[in-house]
Design goal:
The complex is a heterodimer. By secondary structure, chain A is α+β, with helices and mostly antiparallel strands. Chain A is built from ten helices and 20 strands. Chain A has helices spanning about 110-120, 140-150, 165-175, 205-210, 220-245, 260-270, 280-295, 340-355, 360-365, 430-440, and strands spanning about 1-5, 15-20, 30, 35-40, 45-50, 55-60, 65, 70-75, 250-255, 300-305, 305-310, 315, 320, 325, 330, 355-360, 370, 390-395, 400-405, 410-420. In chain A, strand 4 (about 35-40) and strand 5 (about 45-50) form a beta hairpin. In chain A, helix 7 packs across helix 10. Chain A is elongated, with a radius of gyration of 26 Å. Chain B is built from three helices and no strands. The longest helix of chain B is centred in the N-terminal third of the chain and has 15 residues, at about 5-15. The interface of A and B includes residues 320, 375 and 377 of A.
Chain lengths: ~450, ~80
């Protein structure tokens, strides 16, 4: 019997709010399938299962705040992928927590094979009236429901459609059940624009029979968002205090000549459409990832009193949230990505960090962090390491500066790169080696 | 394209990329990076949205002209 538990989504997380189930009892899941969405102070994060099997029971309700490790669902391993599953799954027909308030709170009995069939043909069991023994849903009932509903692809997915945080906020403000909104985003995701301006305009009023809350939401959302911002600030504060108390930081700084990198990038961008253009950050991240592979003391975790180097280089990218606070999701295996792919992943990651959702691994598996405050105008960054990581690289802005060479003064574009690293793991010598490798790699941009 | 149309397109692009910025903050001399916290990735998305909505495709060497809201509007107006 496998249990799906509240995961640790970063060193600073203690608890999370279950905000969405992406599966329902009876669903087959495979290792890596997304099962639930969890909200922390920082973001909404999709979490995957590490087991194959059938979701036997959901143990937590949407909206519950749960500590790391709390069981969220039971997953029964399947001996085979066929319809006949072990008797343990019979428990799946026991009452399950209500996951959508608009739904009836009790479910008719359904046998696993029928449940499986319903899932295959895309019929929502909540919408089927059982004609079998004691109201049980039979194979024939599914067939009828399927016929009534038309081709399965016309039916909305049985589980709650995805939604953007802004859409959820608007829906909450306007008293609208997101389940009643037709999404126009990727995969039917509900976007802010899809949320009707008043509850009466949607189907909700008819579904719930309740008038939309009129005056109250005017004041509620700001306090919720302020609360969230305050929560995020506390979280960051606790993590950074821990860092400063336990990690003996040392700091190095170097000036990198950016002429070669910028000239190469401008040449590459000249022939590209906007969607394919590179930004300097992509080159900086790639150079950092390659250098980290060569200087492994910068890449990994310090845990249980020893350093555990990481084989893959997952670069945590500090993203400033527009509402305040920061989040540092990871570009996974950045060292093995081509520049173009890295650029696309970077754009995707930053936009999801700000507005959408992140994946568990992106929140939990960064092995080295980069902060690129140069984008916002400062010359250099003296970073604080994210525990349990052991190094943080900071890039300042790219500026034109006078530069003396062979008794002549010229002008060049340069950037200050800094390193904060953990003295328990490395010394300034290795740190210097790491920074100078970043510099060398940027002098050869076509090889990145 | 006249300035008014360009301004509307630029405001719409900002509303999409940085919805937290109030329209009243989008004054002519507001600097994208320093005053509005638009980083290089936001900027790229802004330029892309403008290209999609107005057809004005900004080459990289012209990025400097888009450093302020006013510059952005003027650029879109004169190239659209």
């Amino acid at each position: 019997m496998g249990e799906f538990r509240m995961p640790a989504l970063g060193a600073d997380m203690e608890r999370g709010t279950l905000i969405e189930w992406l599966v329902k009892p009876g669903d087959y899941v495979h290792r890596g399938d997304l099962v639930a969405a969890v909200e922390t102070d920082k973001s909404v994060i999709d979490v995957e299962t590490f087991e194959d099997g059938v979701v036997a029971e959901l143990l937590a309700d949407v909206g519950e705040v749960l500590p790391i490790g709390a069981p969220l669902a039971r997953i029964t391993p399947t001996p085979s992928a066929g319809a006949a599953v072990g008797p343990a799954v019979e428990k799946a027909s026991a009452p399950v927590p209500v996951i959508r308030s608009a739904r009836p709170s009790t479910r008719p009995a359904v046998t696993p094979p029928v449940r499986h069939y319903a899932q295959l043909v895309g019929v929502d069991l909540d919408m089927v009236r059982g004609t079998g023994h004691g109201g049980a849903i039979t194979h024939a009932d599914i067939e009828r429901a399927r016929g009534a509903a038309g081709p399965p692809q016309d039916k909305p997915p049985a589980l709650r459609a995805r939604s953007s945080p802004r859409a959820r906020k608007l829906a909450a403000e306007r008293g609208i059940d997101l389940a009643s909104v037709t999404g126009t985003g990727p995969g039917g995701a509900v976007r802010a624009e899809d949320v009707p301006t008043t509850a009466g305009a949607g189907e909700t009023a008819a579904t719930t029979g309740e008038p939309p809350p009129a005056a109250a939401p005017r004041t509620a959302p700001p306090s919720k968002s302020a609360e969230r911002t305050a929560g995020l600030r506390r979280t960051i504060g606790a993590l950074m205090s821990r860092s400063k108390k336990t990690i003996p930081h040392y700091y190095l700084s170097t000036t990198i000549d950016m002429r070669a990198a910028l000239a190469w990038m401008e040449g590459a961008n000249a022939g590209r459409s906007l969607a394919e253009r590179l930004v300097p950050a992509a080159l900086l991240l790639k150079a950092t990832a390659l250098a980290a592979r060569e200087v492994p003391e910068m890449n990994g975790y310090f845990a249980d009193d020893r350093f555990q180097p990481s084989v893959s280089v997952n670069i945590g990218m500090v993203v400033a949230l527009r509402t305040g606070g920061i989040v540092a999701p990871a570009l996974l295996e950045a060292d093995s990505l081509g520049l173009d792919e890295l650029m696309q992943r970077l754009r995707d990651l930053v936009s999801r960090a700000r507005g959408g959702r992140l994946q568990r691994a992106e929140m939990a598996e960064a092995t080295l962090t980069v902060t690129n405050l140069g984008d916002l105008g400062v010359d250099s960054v003296f970073g604080v390491i994210y525990p349990p990581q052991v190094a943080l690289v900071g890039f300042g802005r790219i500026v034109e500066r006078p530069w003396a060479h062979d008794a002549m003064v010229g002008v060049r574009h340069e950037l200050t790169a800094t390193l904060a690293a953990d003295h328990r793991v490395s010394d300034g010598m290795r740190g210097a080696r790491f920074l100078s490798r970043i510099d060398e790699l940027l002098q050869n941009p076509e090889a990145l | 394209m006249n300035t008014q149309q360009a301004r509307a397109a630029v405001e719409a692009a900002f509303a999409q990329i940085a919805p937290d910025i109030e329209p009243s903050e989008l004054i002519g001399d507001a600097r994208l990076r320093q005053d509005l916290d638009i980083d290089s990735l936001d900027f790229l998305r802004l330029v892309q949205v403008i290209a999609d909505t107005t057809g004005v495709d900004t080459p990289e060497e012209d990025y400097r002209q888009l450093a302020t809201v006013g510059g952005f509007v003027e650029y879109v107006a004169s190239h659209g």
